[in-house]
Amino acid sequence: MQRAMTIPLVALLMSSMLLAASSSAEQDEGDDRWRYMIGLLEIPSALGIFMSENSGQTPPKRAIKIYSAPTAKSSVVATVGDPEKLIQAKLSSEELGALVYKKRRGWYLIGLDDDKRTKGWVSPIDAGRFIPVDVLFISRLTYLNQHWDKRVWSLPRRGSASRRLRLKGEGNPLSYDVNITGTRRVRGELWLKVEVLGPGRCRGMNELAVIARGWTPAYTRKGELIAWYYSGGC
Fold first, then answer.
1. Are 208 and 170 in contact (CB under 8 A)?
2. Which of 22, 97, 212, 220 has the highest Cβ tally under 10 A?
3. In what helix (H) or strand (E) does residue 97 lie, and over which residues does it extend?
4. Within its chain, how far is the Cα of 136 from the centroid?
5. In this structure, what is the dihedral angle of CA atoms 77, 82, 87, 89, given to the nearest 10 degrees?
6. Spatial CA neighbour of 131 closest among 71, 169, 183, 80
7. Quick check: helix, strand or coil at residue 112?
8. DSSP string of 2-50, one letter each residue
9. CA distances from 159 to 21, 90, 142, 155, 156 (A)
10. Are the C-beta atoms of 99 and 26 separated by less than 8 Å?
11. Phi first, then psi: what are they for 16, rounded to 5°?
12. SS3 for 76?
């Protein structure tokens, strides 16, 4: 806090705006890649040292096979040795995870960062820790993105009372800082329990006003994930 106070106000505001914009862009770049994303997967052998922080040792890096179906008897759609070939996101400032769209019997459907946006299955042999969206956002610096309709519900179901908030948002694309304090699945739909915050989370302000509390679906009707987090912190 003291360091932030020594930075000229204009520079501080510009830095905050750039942080918000870059963090939002991290999720919204190639927007379809986040559609129906259910969590992040560590793949130690393909993503190397970045994925080994929880294992206590660095696994040998090697290429992995991506299959057309969740069985080793299916055809191989790609052999990946370069982590940049996987659609990925940051678990933290130095830890990567592959985006997962489905899971089945220890297999995970992930995306390849190619022109065709190919998807394929990672075998249990290569799969590391899986972090589902249900717990991914807890205890992180989170925000809701431009897909959020600014509506909060009193209970995690669409038949409950709701209200639409008047918020301007920050950055481009727009984002809205929140605390995600819990999650719940109701009839197969994932809901996020949120505290909607006033502006200033990354501007060195000590106390942030909670504008509203309530629930919001984690996905739009089209499957777009509405939440993400600042992987590197403020």
1. no
2. 97
3. strand 95-104
4. 7
5. 150
6. 183
7. strand
8. HHHHHS-HHHHHHHHHHHHHHHHHHHHTTGGGGBT--EEE--HHHHGGG
9. 34, 35, 26, 8, 9
10. no
11. -65, -40
12. strand
User: Quick one: pLDDT at residue 50?
Assistant: 42
Which phi and psi angles does 91 have, rounded to 5°?
-75, -35
The sign of the CA dihedral 125, 129, 135, 136 is negative
Whether the ω angle into residue 173 lies within 30 degrees of 0, i.e. cis, is yes
Average pLDDT over residues 200-226: 85
Residue 221: what pLDDT?
93
Q: 3-state class of 136 per DSSP?
A: helix
In sequence order, which residues have a C-beta less than 8 Å from that of residue 55 and are 6 or more positions away?
44, 128
User: What letter would DSSP give residue 106?
Assistant: T
Confidence of residue 53 (pLDDT cuts 50, 70, 90): very low
Interval 143-178: pLDDT, tens: 999 999 999 999 999 989 999 999 888 888 889 999
Q: pLDDT tens-digit profile of 175-194?
A: 999 999 999 999 999 999 99
More confident residue, 208 or 128: 128
Question: What's the rounded Cα separation, in Å, for the pair 54 and 167?
Answer: 39
- Please check whether residue 181 is in contact with residue 215, taking contact to mean a CB–CB distance below 8 angstroms: no
Question: pLDDT band at residue 206, thresholds of 50, 70 and 90?
Answer: low
Question: Which helix H or strand E contains 190, and what residues bound it?
Answer: strand 189-197
| Strand 95-104 to 107-111 pairing | antiparallel
